[in-house]
Design brief:
Elements (H helix, E strand, L loop, with lengths): L3 H8 L5 H25 L9 H22 L9 H13 L2 H13 L3 H30 L4
Helix pairs in contact: 2-4, 3-4, 3-6, 5-6
Length: 146
Amino acid sequence: MLHDRDTEAEARPGPGQAQVLVAVSLGGGLGAAARYAASLAWPAGPEAFPWTTLCVNVLGCALIGVLMVTVTETGRRVPALARPFLGTGVLGGFTTFSTYVVDIQRLIERDHPETALGYLAATLAAALAGVWLASALTRRALGVAV
């Protein structure tokens, strides 16, 4: 549900493209560093199921759900660079479609096509469920009408 705040935002001058680029870049670096730290903390061996990538992507999607409800549905003012820094930057850098695809390719090349197909489907289903559930719980916690 969109609020009048969106119309107000169009009338206010926002940050320039350079500021948005810097915010996204800094956020992306932080998100990518956090993902890399997760891969070091919970490494997956060459024959192992890629649990770390799955968990990172599902967690990132859930956090995107929380962010989007908080930023777009509460009617609260948020800093103009919050969404590009946190959403596109931090969470975009944290989640990883490229590693997901490489994991699927690796599983197929190592003769685990059933596991690859299961991973492909599980990631999609869990990521969608994560964003939906986190959005719903955030709406409820913040008293946002649906």
